[in-house]
Specification:
Blueprint lengths: L8 E5 L9 H5 L15 E7 L6 H12 L6 H10 L5 E5 L18 E9 L7 H17 L2 H12 L5 E8 L8 H17 L8 E11 L6 E3 L13 E6 L9 E3 L2 E13 L3 H14 L1
Parallel strand pairs: 5-6
Antiparallel strand pairs: 1-2, 2-3, 3-4, 4-5, 6-7, 6-10, 8-10, 9-10
Length: 288
Amino acid sequence: MSNKKNKEVQKESSESEEEQDSGSERDSDFDSDGNFVGDKELQADFEGRNPEDCDFHGIKQLLRQLFLKSNVDLGALAQIIISQNYIGSVVKQCLDDGQDDDDDDDDGSDGVFGITTVINITKRKEEHCIKQVRQLLTALANDNADDRAKALVNKILSDDANHVGLVINERILNIPAAISVPLFASLQNELDKALKKKMPYSFQYLVWICKTYKTSDDESEVLFANQEEKPLVEEALASFDVDVTEQAELSQWDYDGGAMTPCRKVLIFEGSKFNQLVRLLKEEVENV
């Protein structure tokens, strides 16, 4: 029996110019990671579903966008996300009525457009890929954070009494921020249900890794790949930035005549603020 649960349907489109027909021009619409970056009109219906085995490769690819070349077993991390399929959602394209998403000729791996979930990296600390995530967070803090943030990271990861949730909010380029609102609303409901069943999803702290970019014109200006995450910074107990230029396939992207350098912003929150964070990201989306 499929464990799929349709959570939200949303039609999204990007602004278009005259459609190009040549193969070379079509190729130019995608970056080195396979993300669509062109300006042709794309219109589709999306829905949030519980992760399934067929989503493995799509989830792994999205995790690679976030973690890049970090020493984390992304396949194992994707398996954890699928194993806790009662928590979190993948974004899939709605199928036509006559289309069977269980078709043996299509495993669905290329159809994952986003993933929103949270993983308990304290409860699962003995699993190899979670050990790698914890080691990565410690190393990033030690190399990039100020003393206060560094001490906080080491504190929350060294005390098993502190259950730490790793929030993953990742999607392909050009999927609008509005889709995050129903995904996080669904995640809230799922966490509430899990807590009523006394499952380990009560977090003292949350770690949230955001994809950001800095412009060459103004290093203090930070652009968020996921716009809804921008207002969350003010609520963080601590945060620090990591330059990932050396890990990214493309170190810079054009931006209004300048360039953008890829970074990661690591945010640490009190776990009790999760609902407030969801409210803030919803307000950000509504105000755009």
